[in-house]
Design a protein that fits this description.
Blueprint: H1 16-22, H2 27-30, E1 43-47, H3 53-61, E2 66-71, H4 74-86, E3 92-96, E4 109-115, H5 124-134, E5 135-146, E6 152-154, H6 158-173, H7 184-190, E7 196-205, H8 208-224, H9 226-233, H10 239-253, E8 259-270
Parallel strand pairs: 1-2, 1-4, 2-3, 4-5
Antiparallel strand pairs: 5-8, 6-8, 7-8
Length: about 270
């Protein structure tokens, strides 16, 4: 009997407050660990491409190659196509795909990349096996995921403590693993990957503009996104809890001494030739 497909539910959805974050992402701020390995002729698969900002950057970095961005949500791919078209890229295409069962032949891509994907899937080890299957011998698998428990901030905030506890409970109830960053190397080993280089990277939000942006999108996401709906519908929180978490975000964002750091685990694996 074949293994089941993905069982997890994408916690965030595609509310505007979520896309506010996703469209900020670039290859430079989200895939720096991969960039020195890219060559102009490479064919890249970008899994969980969302609105396509990283995909478009990768396409610019492989002008003689091609990048295929895939996502489970058909609607967001229209935005990804618009992103690539707006930048005049002829070497990027997009398709619907499930990372647990990719519709590509063995040994197709020179690089398979996934940013903030494995924390949301039902079987990350199976997903990594699929990435290994479709990458060519000698090719690279590049994966980066945040680690929510490792997020840290100043000043201390009981409201943000409560937000983090709630988020992790909702994500796990949806079938995901919010602390994926620390698990990437272990998952890769279980998937049979070799040649693993494990690193970490951060996003930091400290300037007034960064604090306003980061706190504002999380306050809005806490009140109005699919995450908010799942928190209430799953019995993890009520409307008052969500309002309290959103207010804690806004209070932190207004602090002149506010500082927030997001830790990410990263793995770069080379498939044996």
């Amino acid at each position: 009997m074949p293994e089941p497909r993905e069982t997890a539910v994408y916690t965030h959805g595609h509310h505007e407050s979520v896309l506010r974050s996703h469209t900020w992402r670039t290859a430079a701020n989200s895939a720096a660990y991969l960039l020195p390995s890219l060559k102009p002729h490479m064919r890249i698969l970008d899994i969980g491409c969302g609105p396509g900002t990283i995909t478009a950057d990768l396409a610019e970095l492989v002008p003689d190659g091609r990048v295929t961005g895939v996502d489970r949500a058909p609607g967001i791919l229209e935005q990804a196509r618009a992103t690539a078209a707006g930048r005049g890229l002829a070497n990027a295409d997009f398709a619907v795909a499930d990372v647990h069962a990719l519709d590509y032949p063995d040994d197709t891509f020179g690089v398979v990349h996934a940013h903030q994907v494995l924390q949301h899937v039902g079987d990350p080890v199976r997903a990594l096996r699929e990435m290994k299957r479709v990458v060519r011998p000698g090719g690279l698998i590049a994966v980066r995921d945040a680690d929510y428990e490792a997020m840290t901030w100043y000043p201390a905030s009981e409201g943000l403590d409560a937000w983090l506890d709630l988020y992790r409970r909702v994500a796990r109830a949806n079938g995901g693993e919010p602390d994926a960053g620390r698990r990437l190397k272990a998952w890769a080993l279980r998937a049979g990957l070799t040649g693993i280089t494990a690193t970490s990277g951060t996003w930091t939000f400290a300037t007034p503009q960064e604090r306003a942006w980061w706190s504002g999108l999380w306050a809005d996401r806490t009140l109005a996104s699919a995450y908010a709906d799942r928190a209430v519908e799953g019995g993890h929180a009520d409307e008052a809890d969500l309002r309290g978490a959103a207010e804690a975000w806004r209070e932190w964002g207004a602090r002149e001494d506010g500082w927030f750091s997001v830790l990410h685990g990263e793995i770069l694996c080379r498939k044996e030739a």
